[in-house]
Amino acid sequence: MSTNIDFWERVIEHPIPEYQTLFQKEKDYLHSHISSNSKVLDIGCGDGRNIISLLDITKDVSGIDSDMKAVEDAKENLKDYPSVDIQQADAFNLPFTEGTFDYTILMMTLVNFADKKVKALEEMKRVTKENGKIIISVYSDKALEKRLEMYKQIEVPITKVKDGYVTFDESVGAHTSEQFTKEQLEELANKAGLRITTCEEAGILAYLCTLERI
Fold first, then answer.
1. Per the domain annotation, does 97 fall within a domain?
2. CATH number for the domain including 48?
3. Which residues span the domain enclosing 124?
4. Is 117 inside a domain boundary?
5. 3-class SS at 190?
6. Any bridge partners for residue 63, and if so which?
7. pLDDT one-digit tens code per residue, 181-198
8. Is 173 inside a domain boundary?
9. In a 3-state reduction of DSSP, which class is residue 166?
10. Which of 199, 47, 194, 210 is nearest to 123 (CA)?
């Protein structure tokens, strides 16, 4: 049985051009918005892709993922960087004290959180310093055609598609994925006591946003 991390690793290994653009724009955005030697938390770190791209900025990075295979893959990929802490944990109950991190990032993972999106953002706010920043990437309202093309390529089983909300077979784990308008993102941020300070398009596939406390 394949899980979310299995399917996502297929995307990373054989991305269609729009996903290649997304990955590069995510890296560029993180590099332009995260300060040197900052303390960073990557939620839903997967195999450590985004952590690896941060290592020339800071090595004071923690990563969490709920999937043990992802944690094991990330630890293997980052074994030469002992300052990087990788652990299995729940994005809705983070194992860190308040105000621990300068930056907390959540890249292409909020899309899978269904009715727990605000809870995830509230937890991110809790563990981020008062003057810290939260960075997210999500599918945009223009993404559906290319999302479906990618899902077909990686053979993820889909049971329903409606208004940009894709439901996968329950065997997939986090079995929903959605996309957002800028207005929907602003509403989510406000519900969590946050505001969006920058929001950029990553091709036609995604938005890259920075949030801070209201």
1. yes
2. 3.40.50.150
3. 4-141+179-213
4. yes
5. helix
6. 42, 86
7. 999 999 999 999 999 999
8. no
9. strand
10. 194
Distance CA 204, CA 208 (A): 12
Average pLDDT of the residues of the chain = 94
**Does 15 reside within a domain?**
yes
Helix ranges restricted to H, 34-154:
49-54, 68-77, 117-127, 144-154
- How many Å apart are CA 143 and CA 207, to the nearest integer? 10
Candidates 54, 56, 93; CA nearest to 74 is 54
CB atoms within 10 A of CB 185: 21
**Model confidence over 131-177: pLDDT tens digits?**
999 999 999 999 999 999 999 998 888 999 999 999 998 877 668 89
Q: Domain count of the chain?
A: 1
Reduce the secondary structure of 2-35 to three states and give it as a string. CCHHHHHHHHHHCCCHHHHHHHHHHHHHHHHHCC
Question: Distance of alpha carbon 1 from its chain centroid, rounded?
Answer: 23
Which amino acid is it at 117?
Answer: K
**What residue type is assigned to position 7 of the chain?**
F
